[in-house]
Design goal:
Layout: H1 3-26, H2 35-45, E1 62-65, E2 80-83, H3 84-90, H4 95-105, H5 110-136
Antiparallel strand pairs: 1-2
The chain binds zinc ion.
């Protein structure tokens, strides 16, 4: 990693662990994950391929994924690293469900694939906005 990438890694990994622990608290989990665990997992994944889309993971695109989503009872420490784009699209699907979805979508035309992936990612933004609005109300 270059010095710049190292800075991004340090900043983003801290924000990732804070967001994760905030989510754990909100979801009623008593466990918290440590910055050390998260940085080890993220650091190991830099330069490797995203398990879903095979794009190379960088400090800018790294993201923590729970193969069994926390919202569906997944264990906080059972995590893997994938790219941000795939993680947004995966939402609260399990790794197996999302992989099946990707396989199914890959049978569509390139044009249809682009449209479906775009809608899936935008849907995630829609649900995040709804959650934020609920918090304000
Ligand atoms: Zn990906």
């Amino acid at each position: 990693m270059t010095k710049r990438q190292q800075q991004i890694f340090t900043r983003r990994s801290l924000s990732i662990v804070r967001n994760l622990n905030e989510r754990l608290k909100k979801l009623g989990y008593s466990e918290r994950v440590s910055i050390g665990l998260v940085r080890d997992a993220l650091g190991d994944a830099i330069g490797k391929q995203c398990p879903y889309c095979e794009e190379t993971i960088t400090p800018r695109t790294m993201s923590l994924d729970h193969p069994t989503p926390l919202s569906r009872g997944g264990s906080p420490a059972m995590l893997q690293v994938c790219c941000l784009k795939s993680n947004r699209e995966k939402g609260c699907l399990t790794a197996a469900e999302f992989t099946k979805f990707l396989e199914d979508v890959s049978t569509y035309s390139k044009e249809a694939q682009r449209e479906i992936h775009r809608k899936m990612r935008a849907g995630g933004a829609f649900f995040r906005l709804q959650a934020r609005l609920r918090k304000v109300a």
